Amino acid sequence: MEFKRLKYFIAVAEELNFGRAAVRLGMAQPPLSRQIAALEDQLGVKLFDRSRNQIRLTDAGAAFLQRARDILRDLDSAYREARLIGQGGAGQLRIAFVGSATHGPLPGLIQAYRSKYKNVDLSLSSMNNADLERALIRRDIDIAVARPYLSGSEELRSAELFREPLILAIPDGSPFADAARSLDLRDLSEEPFVLYPRRPRPSFADFILRVCAENEVTPKDQIFAQDYQTAISLVSVGVGVAMVPESVSRSPRSGVVYKPYTGHNPGTSLTAHARLDNRKPQVMNFFSLLQSFARSGTD
């Protein structure tokens, strides 16, 4: 059945006059009459009683009118939904990120995305870099926010969100916590270093060890934690010191003091990745918003 015939039928049923319905539809009356007759032939029932000067709906016509309205309403809703999803304004976007990203600009970016695309269902989860890469390969997620980036990034769409210096996280009971000046990393060479993640390797832990080596420091004791949250908890109870992104200092933690250090500081970054073949409009909209977010320096 052609949907236009439903529109013709509804117009005639609401006007109960072929002439007025034809004017409403912007067409001549004879073709409208032929379309209604063809619809009745198709259904095998009379929809209108034409026995009097003024036509009226038959019982079958009255029942069909409600169904026709429902069908066109559902069709219009389907059009709007498909258009919205096709433009990235609805549907689903699955984002996973390293734990330390929650202290930088990522929460603000997520909030901005939610505000702009209110009908998109956002799925958020925390993973380490290795799990992020596996999840992207398996298509379990759409976007991975890694620190500093994923090793297979040449095969991925990538955009740097944020770059920041490294700082030291020190137990508040340490004598170094009261130092008024920036610390020389070599001063902490006898301190236990809390590193993360424990596995898989190489990882952010190996990056920190290279930074230490470039500052002529070899941590005497190395204590590995599986993630950032565990590492900072170990610092808070006096187990050792840790090198962390500067943004984490904006979320104070009881038992932890944050200090800058002098010497080689390559900094660290957050980078968003997606598969090159994932061109979902939700993904493309996220990257577009990320780039304007990064340019504005919003944090």
UniProtKB/TrEMBL annotation:
Domain of life: Bacteria
InterPro entries to which the protein is assigned, alphabetical: LysR_HTH_N, LysR_subst-bd, WH-like_DNA-bd_sf, WH_DNA-bd_sf
Domain HTH lysR-type, chain residue ranges per copy: 1-58
Stated family: Belongs to the LysR transcriptional regulatory family.
Classification via CDD domains: PBP2_LTTR_aromatics_like
Name of protein: LysR family transcriptional regulator
Keywords per UniProt: DNA-binding, Transcription, Transcription regulation
Coiled coil: none
One annotated Gene Ontology cellular component of this protein: protein-DNA complex
Pfam families the UniProt entry points to: HTH_1, LysR_substrate
GO MF term list: DNA binding; DNA-binding transcription factor activity
Organism this protein belongs to: Donghicola eburneus
